[in-house]
Design goal:
Blueprint: H1 17-31, E1 36-38, E2 40-42, E3 45-47, E4 52-57, E5 60-69, H2 73-90, H3 95-111, H4 113-124, H5 128-152, E6 164-172, E7 175-179, H6 187-198, E8 202-206, H7 212-224, E9 232-234, H8 239-248, E10 254-258, H9 261-271, E11 283-287, E12 292-296, H10 302-314, E13 324-330, H11 331-346, H12 365-381, E14 383-386, E15 390-392, E16 399-401, E17 404-407, H13 414-417, E18 424-430, H14 433-440, E19 448-452, H15 456-465, E20 470-473, E21 509-517
Parallel strand pairs: 1-5, 7-8, 7-10, 8-9, 10-11, 12-13, 12-19, 13-18, 17-18, 19-20
Antiparallel strand pairs: 2-3, 4-5, 6-21, 14-17, 15-16
Helix pairs in contact: 1-4, 2-8, 3-5, 4-5, 5-6, 10-11
Bound molecules: nicotinamide-adenine-dinucleotide.
Length: 518
C-alpha cells in the first residue's frame, strides 16, 4: 500500500468573502440541527437514555447543542465485553484495511470540514481560524498515523543468532480506554482513538461532558469510513462515574488520557491497582496541563515578540494546554514590552465566535468562577494593565472573561504557578537572561515554552536548559503541527507520549520476539 507523502492539511482563509459566507451558511445549517438527543454507541447498539448531559453553547448557554445520554458503570462493563469480542477479529484484520479506514475518515472530514468547524464554533466557542486549525489537525492525525502504522508496525529489525531464525513483531495490546478534554474535542478525540485503533486495538471513548456532541459526529464519521461495530464504542457521561469505572475495570488493558493534572494523576494512581482477575499491568499515557512561559530578552525583535505573546495567550481565550500564561521579560525592555502587549490586548475583539470575534467565552460556569477567583487576587499579586473582570454577558449569559494582563507578578505567586486556563496573562520582570532561565523552569509543569532573542548563544542555551516538551524559538508557543512538532510535556505535564510524533503508535503495541531453531 503506497500513500502519497504526508503534508499538513492547508487552512482556508476566512477573510476571503466567499469562504466567510460559506462558513456562515454552515453555521446556519448546524443551527438547524441543535437540541437533538444522542445515544451511547456500544457495538451495533444505539442506546438512548433518559439520564442525559446537556451540552450548551458557552457564548450563549441558553442555546442547547444537544442532550447526550450519560453512561453508567454497567454500560462500561457492557462496552468492555463488546470491545473484547471485536478485538478478536480487529487484531487479525490486515494493517492495510485498518489504514484505509483512517484515510477514508480523513477524506470525509475534508469534504465536510465546514460542518465540523461550525459544530466546534457552537459547542466549544472556536472562532473560524481556531476551528479550521482543529479540523485540519484531525485530518493530519489520521493521515499521519496511517503512514506511521505502515512504516513502524510492519517489520522489526533483529539480528540472527546462528542456527536460529529470529524475528519480532508488534502486536496490539487489547481493549483501551480513551478519555479526552473539551478544548480539542475533535482532533484530540479522533487522534487519541485512532492511533490505537490503527495498531489493532479496540477502544472505548469517553469524551468530555462539554463537547460530547462533536464527539458523536466524529464517531459517526468513523463508522461511515468503514470501522466495524465494536472497534470503537462511544461512552459519554460523567468523568467520575463512567470514566472512573473504565479506568478501574480489570478488563481495561490501557488508558490514554488528555486532561487536567489532578484528574490525570488520579487516573494514574487508580490504574496502578490490579483488580480481581486482572492479568496485566495497565499501560497509561497521560497528557496534562501546563503553565507555559515565554522569555523576551533585550536583543529580541520586541514587536514580533509582543504579537507572538498576545496570539499565544489569548487565542481560543487562553484555553489551550500550550497557551502562554507567563511572560518573562528582562528589565531593560520590560516597560516597552508591557505597553506593547497591553495595547495589542486592548485591540482584541471579544464576543461570539459565530461572528468571528477573537476572544470567545470560557467553556462553562465553573471556568468562569475559577477565572473570577484569579482576577480577585490579581491586584494583590500584581498590577492589572488591561481587563480584570469576568461576568456573564447580560443578554446571552455567555461566560465571558475580559482579556487580562497582570504585570509585575512574582515568579512564585499563585498567578504565576497555577494553570488558570482562561484569557489571563501574567507578566514577570527579571533582571537578566540568567534569571529568566531560572524563572522559566520554576513550575511543576513542562509542556510548552519559548524565547524571543537574537543572541545565538542564548538561543543555544535555551535549547539545552529550558525544560519543556515543546520549545519554540522566536515564534509563538501555540499551534503545534502534527508530524512537525511531536507534542507532549515533561514533569507534571504528562508522560511525554508525543502525539503526532514518530514513535506515538508504540504506546499501543507490545513486541513479541520469536526465535525458531533451524
Ligand atoms: P479534565 O481533567 O477536567 O477532564 C478531562 C476528561 O477526564 C473529561 O472527559 C472528564 O470527563 C474526564 N474525567 C474527569 N474526572 C474523571 C475521573 N475521576 N476518572 C476518569 N475520567 C475523568 O480536563 P478538561 O477540563 O476537560 O481539559 C482541560 C485540561 O486538559 C487542561 O488542564 C489542559 O491543559 C489539558 N490539556 C492537555 C493537553 C496536552 O496535550 N497536554 C491537551 C489538551 C488539554
Amino acid at each position: 500500500m503506497n500513500l502519497p507523502e504526508y503534508v499538513n492539511e492547508p487552512y482556508a482563509d476566512y477573510t476571503v468573502a466567499d469562504n466567510n459566507a460559506a462558513y456562515r451558511a454552515a453555521l446556519e445549517n448546524v443551527r438547524g440541527q441543535l437540541g437533538r438527543d444522542y445515544p451511547l454507541i456500544i457495538g451495533d447498539q444505539h442506546i438512548m437514555l433518559t439520564d442525559a448531559i446537556l451540552s450548551v453553547n458557552p457564548c450563549n448557554p441558553q442555546q442547547v447543542i444537544g442532550r447526550v445520554s450519560s453512561a453508567t458503570a454497567a454500560h462500561a462493563q457492557q462496552a468492555l465485553e463488546v470491545a473484547q469480542t471485536a478485538f478478536q477479529s480487529w487484531k487479525n484484520t490486515s494493517l492495510e484495511t485498518r489504514v484505509a479506514v483512517l484515510v477514508k475518515a480523513a477524506q470525509i472530514i475534508r469534504e465536510r470540514k465546514l460542518e465540523y468547524n461550525a459544530w466546534l464554533t457552537l459547542e466549544v466557542g472556536k472562532n473560524y481560524a481556531e476551528a479550521e486549525g482543529e479540523t485540519a489537525e484531525a485530518v493530519d492525525f489520521l493521515e499521519y498515523y496511517a503512514r506511521s502504522a505502515l512504516s513502524l508496525l510492519k517489520t522489526v529489525q533483529t539480528y540472527q543468532l546462528p542456527g536460529e531464525h529470529d524475528r519480532a513483531e508488534y502486536i496490539p495490546l487489547g481493549v483501551g480506554v480513551s478519555i479526552t478534554p473539551w478544548n480539542f474535542p475533535f482532533a484530540i478525540f479522533l487522534g487519541q482513538a485512532c492511533a490505537p485503533i490503527v495498531a489493532g486495538n479496540t477502544m472505548i471513548v469517553k469524551p468530555a461532558e462539554d463537547s460530547a456532541v462533536i464527539a458523536y459526529k466524529a464517531i459517526e464519521l468513523l463508522l461511515e469510513a468503514g470501522l466495524p461495530h465494536g472497534v470503537i464504542n462511544y461512552l459519554p457521561g460523567l468523568g467520575e462515574v463512567v470514566g472512573d469505572a473504565l479506568v478501574k475495570h480489570p478488563m481495561t488493558r490501557f488508558i490514554s488520557f488528555t486532561g487536567s493534572k489532578s484528574v490525570g494523576l488520579h487516573i494514574n494512581a487508580e490504574a496502578a491497582k490490579v483488580g480481581a482477575g486482572q492479568k496485566w499491568i495497565k499501560r497509561v499515557t497521560l497528557e496534562l496541563g501546563g503553565k507555559d512561559s515565554m522569555i523576551i530578552d533585550e536583543t529580541a525583535d520586541l514587536e514580533a515578540a509582543a504579537s507572538a505573546a498576545v496570539a499565544g495567550a489569548f487565542g481560543f481565550a487562553g484555553q489551550k494546554c500550550s497557551a502562554l500564561s507567563r511572560l518573562i521579560v528582562v528589565d531593560s525592555v520590560y516597560a516597552q514590552v508591557l505597553e506593547s502587549v497591553t495595547q495589542k490586548v486592548k485591540a482584541l475583539t471579544v464576543g461570539d465566535p459565530a461572528d468571528n470575534k477573537y476572544v470567545n467565552a470560557v467553556i462553562n460556569q465553573e471556568s468562569l468562577e475559577k477565572s473570577k477567583h484569579y482576577l480577585e487576587i490579581a491586584p494583590t499579586e500584581g498590577r492589572v494593565t488591561v481587563g480584570g473582570s469576568a461576568s456573564s454577558n447580560p443578554e446571552t449569559e455567555g461566560y465571558f472573561v475580559q482579556p487580562t494582563v497582570v504585570a509585575d507578578v512574582k515568579p512564585h505567586a499563585k498567578l504565576a504557578q497555577d494553570e488558570i486556563f482562561a484569557p489571563i496573562l501574567t507578566v514577570i520582570p527579571v533582571k537578566d537572561f540568567e534569571e529568566a532561565v531560572q524563572v522559566f523552569n520554576n513550575t511543576d509543569y513542562g509542556l510548552t515554552g519559548g524565547i524571543f532573542s537574537s543572541d545565538p548563544q542564548r538561543l543555544e542555551r535555551a535549547e539545552r536548559e529550558l525544560h519543556v516538551g515543546n520549545l519554540y524559538l522566536n515564534r509563538k508557543i501555540t499551534g503545534a503541527m502534527v508530524g512537525c512538532h511531536p507534542f507532549g510535556g515533561f514533569n507534571l505535564s504528562g508522560t511525554d507520549s508525543k502525539a503526532g510524533g514518530p514513535d506515538y503508535l508504540l504506546h499501543f503495541v507490545q513486541m513479541k520476539s520469536i526465535a525458531r531453531k533451524i
